[in-house]
Amino acid sequence: MKLDERKKKILSSVVEDYIESAEPVGSKTLVEKYKLNYSSATIRNEMKVLEEEGFLEQPHVSAGRIPSTKGYRYYVDNLMKERKLSMVDIDYINNTINGFGDTDAIFEQVADVVSKVLSTPTVITRNNTDTIENIKVVKISEKLLLIVLMSKNGTVKDCIAKLTDTVEDSVIDQMTSILNQNLTGTPLGELHYALNKVIRRDLEAFSTVMGDIVNSIKYEMSKDLKKLNSGVEKILDNPEFTDIERVKNFINMISTKEIIDSALQKTEENKLSIVIGSENKEVLLNDYTVISLDIEKDNKYLGKLSVIGPKRMDYAKTISTLKYIKDKFNTALTSNKKEEAKGDNSE
Amino acid sequence: MKLDERKKKILSSVVEDYIESAEPVGSKTLVEKYKLNYSSATIRNEMKVLEEEGFLEQPHVSAGRIPSTKGYRYYVDNLMKERKLSMVDIDYINNTINGFGDTDAIFEQVADVVSKVLSTPTVITRNNTDTIENIKVVKISEKLLLIVLMSKNGTVKDCIAKLTDTVEDSVIDQMTSILNQNLTGTPLGELHYALNKVIRRDLEAFSTVMGDIVNSIKYEMSKDLKKLNSGVEKILDNPEFTDIERVKNFINMISTKEIIDSALQKTEENKLSIVIGSENKEVLLNDYTVISLDIEKDNKYLGKLSVIGPKRMDYAKTISTLKYIKDKFNTALTSNKKEEAKGDNSE
DNA sequence: TTTAGCACTCTTTTTGTTCAAGTGCTAAAC
DNA sequence: GTTTAGCACTTGAACAAAAAGAGTGCTAAA
């Protein structure tokens, strides 16, 4: 798997030319455009070796070469140079991810920015390993309760329960303490199951009121499973989408939550996960590359942001941008601007 | 614009056959398939008249006829018979729209059901003519306020404001009463502007805390503008989507909030709005039909549900289904199941 | 008023031809 | 041993011509 300098140069030229042109790259193009000081025949011989080694592919005998999954992988791991972001992009990112709003809002902002800067569909999934720290129940009116869930990470969730009957303040206090005893420390993702247990074991006495509360919480939590899709249409401008069937398949795939979920495994500590073409376990994704980064706040895992594009995506730009975004994202999450004064923007 | 019985029969046969087959309908097909007791020559003469009158169109001289916008319009207004829903659909609708959850949840359920039963993209837009009735501010902890907005229609919205500084209870009371004095009666859709006015005029004294509160409310309200899109991919299975450009245009269009918004005018009292092809003011929609119904609760207008399909959509099924859905929808909204005991479903 | 018959038009499908791109191989050159 | 010029070969793309098929409009007869 060791390539000499000339082969490396050829491979990276093929990858970069193909990323730019979407056309198979021939030996002549390579010599002329990338000033390789050899004749096209030499390049041809080298390309043949690269093909035999599995780095390049040939769509058909009279076409140039395109990178294989293995070729892209080698390029990403060994040959690619990271790229500086353009000032335009930097400005746009900095101005848009301003950290205002709650976590949900920031997630939305980021998904939007990424899909705009990279012209690529962007998916954000949330994963709640965050745990319940405290539950408060506040009586708003005769038949309205507010339930506030505070998590260890500092997220505050709340929901309203409309009651069937009026309820004594003392009963509310009792229920609140039972809820706290049973649920403190429960990961938000598992709250659903925990609630079912609680309602069976301890709370039959308060059944209807408790039912109202529990259902209200369950519904609020279900919102969190939501997947955030942004800029799906962007990918359709790539030249690989001239085939109608492919468009349909892609739209279907991206609309199917399960497929995307399955495609995203946990990434390595602090690194971007790059899954190229057939490296994807999900067969439907074998023609695409998925690049994901973990979203963290105070070292807690909150979820994952992924962009999806053709294998022929601009790896250098995508990766540089995502790394930059990751920092901004973290800053936005930790320094929640809600806590800062807002007197300045009078609009 | 009066058509004799034979012309009516021919027109409705052309429309129905074209809806089914997506192919221009010729005179021979008509005679054989729809047992018209005339020769194909007679039918041809009649079709020619119908074309001259603008009810039919001919893609080219050696093709059959397809309905024009005017033809579809006549069909929908005069010829179409409503169809009984299948038991499968009725069951599915009844089981899925169960009225549990808050208004948002019900909207989502309905959008999902509609797009599944009709295999068509479904868009729900919310329009808040609903007005503020009461605002409560509850102190949850030192630096956390809960703001609860209650509307005339009974919707309850709430949001959390994280404060920069601690705040006296008396200040909160003061602010609450100022908010109520200024905002009661304001339509939710205009709250954004009203808040800006308020903060300038009366509340400079409390600026930072008030800023926190106002921004929190603004953010919460912005969620309401959200458009709900369901089943966009469904439309791509129609044979008109073999042209790649058309697919891209459609996906772009449906992703562009403004276009859809502009397409939806207020409908007549208690009726479905059916806008066919070139009847759409928005040029990009001229090849599509948009059918919308108003969503109401206790005679208040809450928003609009629309399905979008090719002009060649199955009008009879779509309209029958939407009428049925409208009832279910209203029932779900009024008899909010949150208020009913949930002891029965122990899962 | 209806219809059989037919010439006509236009699209779709098929088939064949040419063209250009890019290769692999061979033999010569470095 | 490595590199290169040269050339035969393969293949897809583009184009043109031909053939097939569908459905019409019109005429003249029933």
List keywords for this structure.
DNA-binding; alpha+beta; five-stranded antiparallel sheet; Beta-Lactamase; 347 residues; Enolase-like, domain 1; three-stranded antiparallel sheet; 3 domains; homodimer; 10 strands
Describe it.
The structure is a homodimer of 347-residue chains. Chain A is an alpha+beta fold. The first copy, chain A, has three domains: 75 residues, Arc Repressor Mutant, subunit A (Orthogonal Bundle); 164 residues, 2-Layer Sandwich (Beta-Lactamase), CATH 3.30.450; 90 residues, Enolase-like, domain 1 (2-Layer Sandwich), CATH 3.30.390.60. Chain A contains twelve helices and ten strands. In chain A, strands 7-3-10-9-8 form a five-stranded antiparallel beta sheet, with helices on both faces. A three-stranded antiparallel beta sheet of chain A has the order 4-5-6. A two-stranded antiparallel sheet of chain A has the order 1-2. In chain A, a hairpin with an 8-residue loop joins strand 1 and strand 2. The longest helix of chain A has 20 residues. The relative contact order of chain A is 0.13. At the A-B interface, strand 4, strand 5, strand 6, helix 9 and helix 10 of A face strand 4, strand 5, strand 6, helix 9 and helix 10 of B. Chain A binds a DNA duplex (30 and 30 nucleotides) through helix 3.
